[in-house]
Amino acid sequence: MSDFDREEAARVQEWIERLEAFVASLDGVEGDDAVDLAHDAFEAWQNLARSSLTEQSPSALLIFEALNVLAKVAVIVAVDWVETPDARDRHTPDSAQRLVKDGLEGVLRACKRWLSTGLPSSEDVRRRFAEAAAEVQESMCAMSERSAEMDAQDARADVDPYGAILIHNVPERPDIAAVFTKICSFTEEDNTRYAEAHDRLRRMIDSELSQHISDEGERLCDVLIGVLTELRDRQLSLNDFDAVDERRRRIRSALISFTAALQIHEYQTVRGARQILGLERSEVDKIKELFEEFKKKSFEYRWLEALRDALQHGDINAFNWNFKVSVRSEPEVTITVNRAFLLEFFKENRKKPWLNQRELENLTSDPSVLHMIASVQPVIGSLQEKLDKILYPDIAHDAATVRELISRFEGKEGVCCLQTGPGLTRRRLAPPHSRLAPRVLAFAENYGE
What we know:
Layout: H1 3-25, H2 34-49, H3 58-83, H4 93-117, H5 122-158, E1 163-168, E2 179-185, H6 188-206, H7 208-232, H8 241-276, H9 281-297, H10 299-313, E3 319-324, E4 332-337, H11 339-345, H12 357-361, H13 369-391, H14 395-407, E5 415-419, E6 433-435, H15 438-446
Antiparallel strand pairs: 1-2, 1-5, 3-4, 5-6
Helix pairs in contact: 1-3, 1-4, 2-3, 2-4, 3-4, 3-5, 6-14, 6-15, 7-8, 7-13, 8-9, 8-10, 9-10, 9-13, 10-13, 14-15
């Protein structure tokens, strides 16, 4: 064996060891995508060996044969991913890894034989290089074609960003949690009509600001029930002053939150009408008048709002409280307005003309805060109905628009969504979307019945 052959045999041995290490490293590769695994393996080997492909030699042929195997596997997996509709039948990362290993181990077996039977001749190396180069080129062309097809699909999806999308299950494919199906496309104008009508109905149905009042009322009730339960079950002793103070602070926090919810309802309703819904000034003024009228008519509402100002800007203890325990009756928690403090706090009140101090002065006792809350909560609903007529004057039209939207889904069952960006492609199986609220769809379908 010539010196050149010995040096080349040493290089072949070196690359056999490198390829063996590369194959062993595949065991540590993790991923959910067979295509990515095959592509990453091809890229990794190419980057590792590219600088050594400077001439046609047995060691270079080993490198190139391995690259050819990886290119073929990448094509097999990519074509399988595109052309196999059932995910259960596609290559998995494990099966793709097996293909890679089997192919590379075949290269290793052939090259190891060279060390015992002799290196291939220069003519054999040139011939095999030409064959492998043609095969690699064929693989690269196939991958480029598939990539171009998907690029074209992505490009078509980019100019089709609106439509009705259904998220649904496929009974015959239990392995898939949900499938996205585009039912039809919308124009941008239709999409805007549908989205805005749905959003207006959702805001009206949810009435989040008035619901916030109910939520804070329930929170206060929960705190009171908790204290009453502790008193009843003898878990709280009135002689434990620290524990009693802790319960009083809980009640105070819940009371502050409830009274604040009343003012939040007014302020944000007016702000939303002006800035979010863009109503005319005259319509906003009508909303303000409704709140002013409500304050004039409801003693409880106006003085609860006054209590809120006193609690937040005067003294957080601007109320009276009492816990009562008796062997003859159920325990009681009493919360009353501190009339003396409120009268002093609003002594010179020019910004709230609807507050009549004399009506507080004429009372024979401090009014019960809990009775005031119980009286005001039901009438908040009637106030909200009047507000909704101004805030959402086109309810009938919006309901009709949403019914039109529902019809675009062709009666198919699933989660109805509006597409909000580039559409479905092989690369983008879950396009950008916003779900339509079932409560809004049900309201629209039943409106007017």
